[in-house]
Write a structure and sequence with these properties.
- By secondary structure, this protein is of the alpha+beta class.
- It folds into five domains: 59 residues, Transcription Factor, Ets-1 (DNA polymerase, domain 1, Orthogonal Bundle); 87 residues, no CATH class; 117 residues, no CATH class; 80 residues, no CATH class; 194 residues, no CATH class.
- It is 41% helix and 11% strand.
- It is built from 28 helices and 17 strands.
- The strands form seven sheets. Strands 13-14-15-16 form a four-stranded mixed beta sheet, with helices on both faces.
- Strand 14 and strand 15 form a beta hairpin.
- Helix 19 packs across helix 26, helix 20 packs across helix 22 and helix 27 crosses helix 28.
- The longest helix has 19 residues.
- The termini are far apart.
């Protein structure tokens, strides 16, 4: 007697406990399909079990699809609709209706081999483990399940009609992953069409939002040393040494610099570190939740700087690149005026004649003045040899130069003569421009609400100003027109030339406590003014001012009364040297301006922005693109176009 199909049906319905009763009653494969409801009630006492067996028998009799087989897996297949189902492998399977003919299922069950030969894998869906049973944890993935119904139009294409609400379902990777058939042979009326739509893998989403701009795998595998580490050391479980990590950091930093430059963002560096240890856990610490990516790059606001292998390599590469990058000395002419030319400094440098220099140092008179006129460029060569950097005099060499070039300071008007010979087109630049600039500066100060009488202690009425008064007041108001530069200076007075004068005396410096560092403060407007000009009574001895002077840069000394703007004489004080300039302020201002160029003296720190306005704005001297502060550029833009 044959009980193979009876056994198969009961096992697939998980009703094997009734198999002995079927054999006792001699219910073979042939008599199984002849059972009725009353016959089963005597063998199977449970109503639900009887209904399952009757459903299987009816399906075998009718020759239609084995609905009981699909229901065992909680997947309902209706011959009138088509639907899609998402499995755990990221594939979407579409079942659709394509005919009205009868099914090819016969009245008997087929074994797995025969079903495979016919292209049917329905037996793979009939497993003992139900879909709603909890599988092993490592095989669980949550993916959305959406049912989409299709209807066939006149052209034979399937058009989506309705959509179900999204749901979340636990699906085992092995369920329906092997469904690869798209039709059933034999002229059946019901054809199952299966469409596989590949979705992106879950692991790929971890590296989807890459902001560092390259593929870590390709970059690392392109280097032979790192490739050997990945393919040899990691599979063998060997130690990843510090030298190995440095080699990896070097390859990654080169790629970062190529994509993001030498100053990448912290977010990009952190993402590189995280992705590196996620792809290669051996490069981090597998015990930690985030694989220990902090060893490659870590930044916190509580630390002075970032740390890690990537950061160390980045700092090293940045230093090397900065050393190799040449400094671009691009000069920008502020005013497009063909009449101005500062190119005379680019002439040849004649060799200094020491005999003439010694003769001029030992003698005075007309002959010395003539020799001074013929040795201008020799003096320029000598001065350039004592510069610490191009265009800046080494202040420590100034006493030696003053001794060699004594006639330049002792003889009247020699500074101006040297400048005029070296820059003939600029000889009268201040006499031409400053009268116009001074009037505009006074107007600018008045509209800015600056009370020059209160700031400078002037009691003279504005309408009583002479031209010389306007030139002097405009020059003195520059510290109040331009905002403070924020330069931090030592509070101890470095000038020493105004301690005994009440009119120019500023607030006393704070006392320095014992055992503490010297305090620092920002230069006040009065400090800035005193670096430009100092007012002294007309009976003041110039020798006393020179003795008390500790300022390294030149400034103007005005002897007289600033209250009514009456002055008897002006001097340009340069360290321990006093250059007389007569009774006119404009001559002293012109001499001080030209002294900076003739001797390449660096601009004073306290009044740096003010002298930049005078030299580069009024004088039109070329400068570096990023040399001028914004406040200086704005004042030049407001004043100079109106000149």
């Amino acid at each position: 007697m044959e009980f193979s199909e009876v056994t198969r049906v009961l096992e697939e319905l998980e009703l094997s406990r009734y198999l002995d009763k079927f054999k006792e009653n001699q219910i073979t494969d042939r008599s199984f399909v002849l059972l009725s409801r009353d016959d089963l009630s005597e063998i199977v006492p449970v109503l639900g079990h009887r209904l399952q067996i009757l459903s299987a028998i009816e399906a075998l009799k009718s020759g239609k699809e084995n609905n009981f087989m699909i229901q065992a897996k909680e997947i309902i297949l209706d011959s009138d609709i088509s639907f899609t189902q998402a499995n755990s492998a990221g594939r979407r399977i579409k079942f659709s209706k394509s005919g009205d003919e009868n099914s090819i299922f016969s009245a008997s069950l087929l074994d797995a081999k025969e079903m495979g030969e016919r292209g049917l894998l329905c037996a793979e869906l009939l497993r003992k483990k139900r879909l709603n049973e909890t599988p092993k944890r490592q095989n669980i993935r949550k993916v959305p399940k959406s049912l989409q119904f299709y209807s066939e139009n006149d052209d034979g294409h399937f058009v989506p009609s309705t959509f179900s609400a999204p749901d979340v379902q636990n699906i085992n990777e092995n369920v329906v992953s092997n469904v690869n058939c798209d039709s059933q042979p034999g002229g059946s009326s019901q054809l199952i069409h299966i469409q596989l739509i590949q979705a992106p893998a879950v692991e790929g989403n971890l590296f989807s939002n890459v902001i560092y701009g390259f593929n870590i795998d390709k970059v690392l595998m392109a280097d032979e040393t790192v490739r050997n580490i990945i393919l040899s050391k990691i599979p063998a479980g060997e130690f990843i040494l510090r030298a190995d990590r440095q080699a990896i950091a070097g390859i990654l930093i080169n790629a970062i610099i190529r994509c993001l430059g030498t100053c990448p963002g912290k977010a990009a560096m952190e993402q590189v570190a995280k992705h590196l240890v996620l792809k290669y856990p051996s490069f981090g610490d597998v015990r930690r939740q985030e694989r220990g990516w902090e060893m490659w790059f870590f930044h916190t606001p509580f630390a002075p700087a970032a740390t890690g292998f990537l950061e160390e390599r980045l700092k090293s590469q940045r230093k090397k690149i900065n050393k190799k990058t040449p400094t671009k000395n691009l000069q920008v002419v502020l005013f497009n005026e063909n009449s101005l030319s500062w190119n005379s400094d680019d002439d040849d440098e004649p060799e200094p004649d020491e005999r003439k220099f010694e003769y001029m140092r030992q003698n005075k008179g007309v002959e010395v003045i003539n020799i001074m006129k013929n040795t201008v460029f020799q003096r320029r060569t000598l001065i350039r040899r004592h510069t610490s950097q191009p265009g800046t005099l080494d202040i420590s060499a100034l006493p030696k130069l003053c001794e060699i070039l004594r006639p330049l300071f002792d003889t009247d008007n020699m500074i101006v003569q040297d400048f005029n010979i070296r820059h003939p087109t600029l000889s009268l630049i201040m006499y031409d421009r400053w009268p116009k600039v001074a009037k505009l500066l006074l107007e600018y100060a008045e509209k800015s609400g600056i009370n020059y009488g209160k700031k400078l202690g002037i009691s003279k009425n504005r309408y009583d100003f002479t031209n010389d008064d306007t030139y002097l007041v405009a020059y003195s108001l520059l510290p109040f027109i331009l905002p403070s530069t924020g330069r931090r200076l030592k509070c101890d007075s470095q000038d020493g030339h105004d301690s005994d004068d009440e009119e120019a005396e500023g607030p006393p410096p704070p006392k320095r406590s014992r055992g503490k560092r010297q305090s620092k403060g920002k230069a006040s407007d009065l400090d800035t003014l005193q670096s430009l000009i100092i007012f002294k009574p007309k009976l003041t001895h110039v020798a006393k001012v020179i003795k008390e002077n500790t300022t390294m840069s030149p400034f103007i000394l005005a002897l007289g009364s600033p209250s009514n703007l009456e002055f008897v004489s002006f001097f340009v004080i340069f360290q321990k040297i006093a250059i007389p300039c007569g009774e006119k302020f404009l001559k002293a201002f012109d001499t001080c301006f030209k002294l900076f160029t003739v001797l390449y003296v660096p601009l004073p720190l306290k009044s740096l922005d003010l002298w930049m306005f005078i030299v580069h704005g009024v004088g039109g001297k070329p400068c570096l693109r990023d040399e001028l502060p914004p406040v200086v550029q704005s004042l030049i833009g407001q004043i100079m176009p109106r000149v």
